[in-house]
What we know:
Blueprint: H1 59-71, H2 75-84, H3 90-101, H4 107-119, E1 124-128, H5 142-167, E2 178-182, H6 191-196, H7 204-231, E3 240-244, H8 249-266, E4 275-280, H9 286-300, E5 304-309, H10 327-347, E6 354-360, H11 364-377, H12 381-385, E7 387-392, H13 397-407, E8 412-417, H14 424-436, H15 444-459
Parallel strand pairs: 1-2, 1-8, 2-3, 3-4, 4-5, 5-6, 6-7, 7-8
The chain binds flavin-adenine dinucleotide.
Amino acid sequence: MRQFSSLRPLSRSLPVSRLSRGINTTRATKTTLVPPVSSLHTPTPNGVKPANYLESLSNRILFNYACIGLVTLNKPILNLVIKAFPLVPMSVIDFFIGKIYCGGSTPEQTIATGTELSKRGINNMMLSYTVEDAEGIKNINIDDLVKQTADSIDNILKPHIINQIESGKEAINDIPPGYLALKPSALVADPANVLLNYNNPAWADKWQTLNDDCAKITEQIDRLNNELLAKYPQRKSPFFVSVIDAEKYALQQGVYVLQRNLFKRFNRPDGFTQVVGTVQMYLKQGMDIIKLEEKLAKEGNYRVGLKLVRGAYIHSEPDRSVIHDTKEDTDVAYNTGIKYVLDSLSKDPTHSVLGHLVVASHNADSQKYATDVLASSSNDVTFKSNVVLGQLLGMCDDVTFELINNHGVKNIIKYVPWGPPIETKDYLLRRLQENGDAVRNDNGWPLVKNVLKVFKDRVFGKPQTVSVTTK
Ligand SMILES: Cc1cc2nc3c(=O)[nH]c(=O)nc-3n(C[C@H](O)[C@H](O)[C@H](O)COP(=O)(O)OP(=O)(O)OC[C@H]3O[C@@H](n4cnc5c(N)ncnc54)[C@H](O)[C@@H]3O)c2cc1C
């Protein structure tokens, strides 16, 4: 059992995350493919909420889930699939599992993914158009990447949030912001050296280029936030937010300075917190980083937005001593971080130095903990709308479902990788490995059986279950 002895005990455990662990985004995609079961009934008729999370998924996604079940039947099968992965054409991989994890290869496909998510009560996305090149060995056109990233605000996030608002399905402040994930190691040539040498005059030009690239994208966010605020003045949280992803430890000192520069420039004391930086709570210094950012922002008269993650590089970190000694220590640090930020934000949500929080985790206990603290802290709309839960697309859908349907959560988004198919394979392979990490008792054959049961019910017209009422 997980232990949070110093923290509030959970009243009720959520299901253990089935599809979890790790993030290491690469450019990822899918191509459009016709769902093999498109003639079947669609789920959740008349707004009735299904009791089983599988019932909330489209036929296409269910088909992909069945495929995941089949490849995780047992370890030898999974290992064989992983070995064969590099030889299998991308279109085949994409057909069988791509739709679960990737938002699309074009803005139109990605908006369609957003629309599908909103049918499940997930009303916005954290978009990532990313390419990893921390070692600087790939020949990436950075200008193109910056342009595509900036354009995705206008082409995807803006139409999506306007559709959400105009549909009138949710109150305007119940719709989470659209986030744009910026991966520092993808936004400049030779990124590792640039980040390592952030305070070395010999690297000043390249360091400036990285800062300028992030600022260029965030200027677009700033402009569009002002534009939409003029149209919807009742909005209490940003419509769009720039999020700086965290990298491995050695690069993080540069990343902290980068995100601080953006906080100073774009998070004005009387405005939206439209830049969010990431803190990895598996680091022993995690809590100190939060307090340092808070102190510096107070002195500098700007606001700080934080995305709290546990941290994705535990297996590749050369200096293990910087990370908490045990998983339990990381868990306690993570929930302590959540509590600290929420306490601060709840006191004066419009002006607090810590102005926005993203709880980015697949851990059911942490998500429930954040939800409980949020519910018991304050009913202020500015407070509530500036706290958002986030998970990767295709990961822990059972936890997401439980939060939305049994805990009335509206402040939830999925991290959606999208873009042309160049690096999709690597991203999908990692998701598959993590997913089947695994071959746990809720993957494999039980998953296949449950998917088949949902299909059977849809084909033969059995009504979807109704054990949960719409809040
Ligand atoms: C929306 C989103 C955005 C993300 N962005 C980033 C990012 O920018 N940078 C980044 O680094 N990661 C990022 N991640 C990944 C994140 O850091 C975690 O790796 C991942 O979410 C798994 O942790 P968890 O909170 O879901 O929970 P769990 O599955 O409960 O925790 C697993 C995590 O616990 C920690 N852990 C495991 N074993 C030990 C141990 N023995 N000792 C100490 N700690 C241990 C590790 O951090 C491990 O990843 C993101 C995740 C999400 C959902």
